[in-house]
Amino acid sequence: MSEVVLYDYWRSSASYRVRIALNLLGIDYRTVPVNLLEGAHRKPDYLALNPQGLVPTLVIDGGPLTQSLAIIEYLAELRPECGLLPSDSADRQHVRALAYAVAMDIHPICNMHVVSHVMTLTEKADAREEWMKHFIADGLGKLEAMIAESGGAFCFGDTPTMADLCLVPQVYNARRWGVDLTDFKRIVAIDARCAAMPAFQAAHPDRAAEASSPGRNAAG
């Protein structure tokens, strides 16, 4: 395999997911930081690589891949034995549903450009924090009920899947914004199990920040 390159922002939830996946699959990669606060994602050279101007972008097998879940599914197909997606089609659908509940329902409305626009519509000083707490707590409450239907140590079964790769970054953001996690006992327990695993530890934003440029206040 040729060199694998991850265009990454340390606090991006989407980038965090892909870092975990690469670590779980044992794929070595080089990181190129894309500082969202400095607008690096809007520069022509990056837009040529990723026309959406989003992170992450993964260059692997000679071409750029975009969109975190599409990247993770590609990696899962490269290493099906790692179990990021189950072999059974019904089980795969269930894992996707859990992952999408985070990546498509919670994350988009709590993203940096969305919340920044919200702040232009109100003069309320604490609007950003209220917005984040409301939508993260609401989404995690629904996810808690979905996960309760699944057995095992993780979101689905006894090994991490794509659902856990989405859950952990969202819990990181929940804690960052001061969301009360008391009622989300299953989510907290799964997050703790993941936190004990080296692949998740190495992907943590605090580790990723060490290789990034200054500026540590962007939304996830």
From TrEMBL:
Keywords recorded for this protein, A-Z: Isomerase
Record domain GST N-terminal: where: 2-83
Enzyme kind, highest EC tier: isomerase
Transmembrane segments: none
Top-rank lineage group of the source organism: Bacteria
Family annotation (Pfam families): GST_C_2, GST_N
Protein name from the UniProt record: Maleylacetoacetate isomerase
Protein source organism: Rhizobium croatiense
Source lineage: Bacteria, Pseudomonadati, Pseudomonadota, Alphaproteobacteria, Hyphomicrobiales
